[in-house]
Automatic annotation (TrEMBL):
Keywords: Oxidoreductase. SUPFAM superfamilies: FAD/NAD(P)-binding domain (SSF51905), NTF2-like (SSF54427). PANTHER family: FLAVIN-BINDING MONOOXYGENASE-LIKE PROTEIN (AFU_ORTHOLOGUE AFUA_4G09220) (PTHR43539:SF68). This is NAD(P)/FAD-dependent oxidoreductase. Gene3D superfamilies: 3.10.450.50, FAD/NAD(P)-binding domain. InterPro entries: Auxin_biosynth/cation_transpt, FAD/NAD-bd_sf, NTF2-like_dom_sf. Residues 120-140 are annotated as: Disordered. Pfam families: Pyr_redox_3.
Length: 591
């Protein structure tokens, strides 16, 4: 028999919460929460992306937002488990409809997720609300779909301004563009590369996504059932190009954003673009930077660079190792790109050495598949967990509670692959699992660097096919290679710096101004106080997917999964502003 007790207990708790919030009884609401409690809100209450940690923080948020939010119509849709109970629910606000997840321990709420899912009167035209697509009957003035699309595309180049301009036409910009299109927000996406998908096509030839297909779907059009588990870069590029066309996005390839200035009085941007050699000026209200999770490449300023007789490039400039066959190549760096580039060079017949300056977290791909993607898998789909449901499950755990869960996972991973790690460390490779042993995912959130999902490079290192020089500082470049602080030298004809990227706000410094970029501050990271992620604690990714210090400016980025999930909430925030729906942003000094 199906156990209805969890749903009943969850419904009773939610009814109590609804009653206290209806009466604006914040003290009464707090009595329903455990002492160690968390409320993560994505736009529904705060018009922000924010986690409240502890009762005082929740009280401050409710005091500030209840009057404007007017939450109502709370209903549990699913409850499961014994201790804790996990319950899914829906609710409504003054602006629209929402959904969420909460957990109960000993009758008290430990964690709560609330998300805005739609705006009343501005729902996406999906399912029963889909467009008719044709107006039946004879009409001498009929405009076909193709004619309408051509007119729409031409208008933006002939004096019509979009409401939103997205700088960056990779996966993040494309997914946000699709969300905005469905919400009826006039949007132009500009991209320096010629074609949609070129940001993938132009990378090194052997690149394949390290995350599985179930984790990487785009909104509205999931990958087909025959799609490979790991997507090759060119196949991904073709999919993005198809997606842009099918989703009817206005996408300007071969276009560079030169500058942008915000008019405080008119609340619009003046953006200068260079498209196919011509200057175009657009005046959007909202400006989105979707240049990935990163900004410009970081390059080490190495002594002796002027005397080096070989070639030195950043890994972002690398595409193909065929020109390096038989030549000595040094890759500086030991994270994902460095490993992938080293493998590509080895496959091309180069003599490759990797210079590792700090420890790297390495996890075998199959191990991650078996142990870390339980809700993003074929088995999960069979259990009724599609990608949207999986995204909500993932979002329901606040960042503050993730480290202990990730540490427990990586304790199991290290035990399973102990022999693999022993062999890798025997080569001199510097291995770690983060400063608090929490592994790859926390490094990804904190710094976006310092890890590698092993798809073949580690065995080449173990076998001595890729050389390792680890833990010794570089002293200088010489005419023929690299000299290290211990006096040793490595001969090199080509040096490839796989040394990462600057923060995305550096792109703002280049296009808008240094002052505004500094006012916004660093993008990405949690403020964990660990290496390269200085405090104070934010509890959410810095400046991502939410209002920032500069009005009408947004950041959209991250991997496919984060771009997919958060594109919905960025789009809803922008749509609400276009429709002049009140959006009182609840924030603290750290947002």
């Amino acid at each position: 028999m199906h156990d209805t007790a969890p749903a009943a207990k969850a419904s009773a708790w939610l009814a109590q919460l609804a009653d206290t919030l209806q009466r604006r009884d914040v003290a009464g609401a707090l009595e329903l929460f455990a002492e160690d409690c968390y409320w993560r809100d994505l736009v529904a209450f705060t018009w922000n992306v924010k986690t409240m940690e502890g009762k005082p923080a929740i009280a401050a948020m409710l005091d500030a937002t209840l009057a404007a939010t007017g939450p109502r119509d709370w209903a549990v849709t699913q409850g499961a488990g014994s201790e804790p109970i996990e319950a899914w629910f829906t609710f409504a606000t003054a602006a629209g409809r929402g959904s969420g997840i909460f957990t109960l321990e000993n009758g008290k709420c430990r964690t709560m997720l609330t998300t805005l899912q739609s705006l009343d009167g501005h729902e996406e035209p999906l399912g029963p609300r889909r467009a008719n697509g044709v107006r039946h009957g004879a009409d001498r003035n009929r405009a076909t779909w193709a004619e309408q699309r051509a007119a729409e595309e031409a208008a933006y180049g002939n004096g019509t301004d979009p409401y939103c301009l997205i700088i960056g036409g990779g996966q993040g910009g494309i997914m946000l563009g699709a969300r905005l299109k469905q919400l009826g927000v006039p949007t132009v996406i500009v991209e320096k590369n010629a074609r949609a998908g070129d940001s993938w096509r132009n990378r090194y030839r052997s690149l394949v996504l390290h995350d599985p297909v179930w984790y990487d779907h785009l909104p509205y059009i999931p990958f087909p059932a025959n799609w490979p588990v790991f997507t090759p870069k060119d196949k991904m590029g073709d999919w993005l190009e198809m997606y842009v066309k099918v989703m009817e996005l206005t996408y300007w390839g071969g276009t560079e954003c030169v500058s942008a200035q915000f008019d405080e009085a008119e609340k619009r941007w003046t953006v200068e673009l260079r498209r196919d050699g011509k200057t175009i000026t657009l005046r959007p209200a909202q400006l989105v930077f979707a240049t990935g999770a990163y900004g410009p490449p970081k390059m080490l300023d190495l002594k002796g660079a002027d005397s080096f007789g070989g070639k030195m490039i950043h890994s972002s400039q690398y595409s193909d190792g065929s020109a390096y066959r038989g030549r000595k190549v040094v890759v500086i760096g030991a994270a994902s790109s460095a490993h992938d580039v080293a493998v590509d060079l080895w496959e091309a017949g180069a003599d490759v050495t990797m210079v590792q300056r700090s420890p790297t977290t390495v996890v075998r791909s199959q191990t991650l598949m078996d142990m870390a993607f339980d809700i993003y898998s074929e088995e999960a789909v069979a259990r009724g967990i599609d990608v949207d449901k999986a995204d909500m499950i993932a979002a329901a755990t606040p960042f503050a509670l993730q480290p202990p869960k990730q540490k427990a996972l990586y304790d199991r991973i290290r035990a399973r692959d102990a022999e693999f790690y022993r062999k890798l460390e025997a080569t001199g490779f510097l291995l770690d699992f983060g400063p608090d042993e929490t592994g790859l995912m926390m490094k990804a959130y904190r710094t976006g660097s310092g890890y590698y999902v092993d798809v073949g490079a580690s065995q080449l290192i173990i076998d001595g096919e890729i050389g390792i020089k680890a833990g010794v500082e570089i002293d200088r470049l010489t005419p023929t290679g690299i000299r290290f602080a211990d006096g040793s030298e490595i001969e090199a004809e080509i040096v490839i710096q796989s040394t990462g990227f600057q923060s995305m706000h550096e792109v703002v410094a280049k296009i808008v101004s240094r002052e505004i970029a500094d006012e916004i501050g660093t993008c990405w990271g949690l403020g964990s106080g660990t290496r390269n992620d200085p405090g104070p604690w934010h509890g959410e990714l810095r400046n991502m997917y939410k209002p920032v210090a500069q009005e009408n400016l947004w950041f959209q980025g991250g991997n496919l999964a984060l771009s997919r999930f958060f594109s919905k909430f960025v789009a809803l925030q922008i749509k609400a502003r276009m429709e002049r729906i009140p959006t009182p942003v609840y924030s603290t000094p750290l947002q």
